């Protein structure tokens, strides 16, 4: 079995690549980072160091690596004979890998079973986004896309920090991991990936993951950044930051329980587990990494505006979520392109226009005035 995996970064090597390797796939990593690909191409293995409770070291071998920019034809050829394609490149990058996948699909022998495609990104229905992009690059006169490819949404959860310099290809990760995959598109041909969980209704799982793990983690990052702290574990050790993060997750818990019918005690246990993961002192994770890309994170269906908007629609005024968004608006790490773009928007646009541009909420939305007020306050400081 062969899998082509786009994105040989933290999640690519430390999570998806590892689980596919353990499932028996030969993994072909495709990435545009030339130095990384050269290193992978000349290595015969790398280690994944799982740190925290029950630490372990796992070795990944039987992989190859290609530069999907300079060796695109080779990647297309690999896809044409692969069983599976996965991505961990970032939601905004899916549109760039989609045309390569479309070319690979077009080059497949018609007798091959449909290619199974899963985007492993932190976004609701990321695979669907990828599917839309592949369809846009697809020549319908050749074959029906749905007859040559199966697209399944997934939720991926494992904290993989940026790696320390000098670590080579090895990756340090937390011990916890969860890969939940929508079973329904596969019919009778569900891939055999022992480390993954296949479910019939992914929606509640993905919202629970994004609005608990990612909302909580990003809150810890923005509150920690505002408090001048460097590491996530330091932020969580600060009682004021920890209380604010807890309050945010109380609000998302209220929504998740009301919307999806999760049992409150189970959701509370999930929250506790997540909070304990954030405090893992063995993970060298920084507020700057976890807070990266604030514009994406303030998007309409993302971890803050998504749950806050739904609460507002239900007549509940979020408080802690708005406080987290307020902190996100102050995330001004100069090395983060989106933080710089956000700062420019805040200085160039009036508050109402900034709300629309950043969150895509219409002025008629019940959450709009509260975010407008946050932005007015932020602008008044500048
Ligand atoms: N790191 C984490 O803890 C988690 C990350 N995720 C998600 O996984 C995805 C990847 O995140 P990370 O691995 O942390 O980021 P990363 O930056 O470590 O890895 C992304 C990789 O994608 C590559 N890439 C960029 N453009 C590309 C292109 N056009 N074609 C092929 N490769 C390309 C980059 O060179 C890089 O190696 C994101 O969507 C993130 O939200 C999900 C769960 C946890
Ligand atoms: O690109 P994003 O959305 O920041 O994704 C990375 C985040 O995903 C998570 O691993 C959660 O699964 C966070 O711990 C991590 O910060």
UniProtKB/TrEMBL annotation:
Source organism superkingdom: Bacteria
EC number: 1.1.1.17
UniProt catalytic activity: D-mannitol 1-phosphate + NAD(+) = beta-D-fructose 6-phosphate + NADH + H(+)
InterPro entries referenced in this protein's UniProt entry, alphabetically: Mannitol_1_phos_5_DH, Mannitol_DH_C, Mannitol_DH_N
An annotated Gene Ontology molecular function: mannitol-1-phosphate 5-dehydrogenase activity
Keyword Metal-binding found: no
Record Pfam families: Mannitol_dh, Mannitol_dh_C
Domain called Mannitol dehydrogenase N-terminal: residue spans: 1-193
Domain Mannitol dehydrogenase C-terminal: residue ranges: 201-351
Keyword field: NAD, Oxidoreductase
Chain residues that bind NAD(+): 3-14
Matches recorded under NCBIfam families: PRK02318.1-2, PRK02318.2-5
Matches recorded under PANTHER family: ALTRONATE OXIDOREDUCTASE-RELATED, MANNITOL-1-PHOSPHATE 5-DEHYDROGENASE
Family: Belongs to the mannitol dehydrogenase family.
This protein's name: Mannitol-1-phosphate 5-dehydrogenase
Taxonomic lineage from the root: Bacteria, Bacillati, Actinomycetota, Actinomycetes, Micrococcales
């Amino acid at each position: 079995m062969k899998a082509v995996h786009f994105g040989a970064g933290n999640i690519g090597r430390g999570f998806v690549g590892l689980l596919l390797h353990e499932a028996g796939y030969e993994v072909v990593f495709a990435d545009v980072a030339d130095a990384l690909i050269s290193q992978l191409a000349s290595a015969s293995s790398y280690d994944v160091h799982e740190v925290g409770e029950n630490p372990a070291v796992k070795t990944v071998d039987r992989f190859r690596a290609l530069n999907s920019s300079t060796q695109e034809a080779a990647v297309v050829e690999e896809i044409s004979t692969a069983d599976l394609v996965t991505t961990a490149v970032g939601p905004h990058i899916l549109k760039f890998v989609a045309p390569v996948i479309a070319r690979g699909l077009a080059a497949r022998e018609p007798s091959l079973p449909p290619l199974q495609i899963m985007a492993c990104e932190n976004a609701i229905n990321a695979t669907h986004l990828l599917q839309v992009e592949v369809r846009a690059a697809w020549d319908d006169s050749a074959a029906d896309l749905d007859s040559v490819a199966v697209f399944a949404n997934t939720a991926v959860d494992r904290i993989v920090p940026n790696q320390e310099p000098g670590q080579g290809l090895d990756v340090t990760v937390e011990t916890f991991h969860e890969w939940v995959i929508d079973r329904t598109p596969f019919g009778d041909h569900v891939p055999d990936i022992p480390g993954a969980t296949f479910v019939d209704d992914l929606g509640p799982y993905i919202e629970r993951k994004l609005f608990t793990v990612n909302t909580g983690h990003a809150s810890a990052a923005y509150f920690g950044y505002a408090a001048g702290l460097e590491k996530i574990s330091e932020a969580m050790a600060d009682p004021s930051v920890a209380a604010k993060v807890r309050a945010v997750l109380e609000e998302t818990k209220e929504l998740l329980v009301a919307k999806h019918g999760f049992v409150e005690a189970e959701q509370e246990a999930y929250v506790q587990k997540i909070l304990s993961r954030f405090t893992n002192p063995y993970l060298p994770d920084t507020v700057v990494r976890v807070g990266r890309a604030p514009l994406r994170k303030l998007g309409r269906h993302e971890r803050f505006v998504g749950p806050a908007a739904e609460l507002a629609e239900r007549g509940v005024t979020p408080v802690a979520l708005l406080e987290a968004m307020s902190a996100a608006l102050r995330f001004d790490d100069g090395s983060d392109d989106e933080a710089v773009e956000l700062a420019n928007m805040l200085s160039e646009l009036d508050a109402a226009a900034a709300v629309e541009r950043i969150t895509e909420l219409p002025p008629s939305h019940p959450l709009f005035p509260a975010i407008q007020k946050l932005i007015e306050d932020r602008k008044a400081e500048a």
